Amino acid sequence: MTDPRRYYLTAEHVAELACVTTASVTESGEYDRVVVEVVIEPTEQTVPARVLSRLATDGLGVADVTPQGTHLLVTAFA
Known about the structure:
There is one protein chain. By secondary structure, the chain is an alpha+beta fold. It has helices at about 5-15, 50-55, and strands at about 20-30, 35-40, 60-70, 70-75. The relative contact order is 0.25. The model has no long low-confidence stretch (mean pLDDT about 95).
């Protein structure tokens, strides 16, 4: 089982990136687990490498990238 504090630290790290609007920890019914959701700035066409790198550094992988209006929503978990 993954330590939940890990997700909160990852959300804080990712939220500090200029290309990120918000990053939060939430319970996902779709994945039946806690996930980190990252909203990418609308100026970005794809998920920036620095976001992917930060998630990977903290041991999380990307499960989904979904357009949300003009933003991209990234869902990640370990």
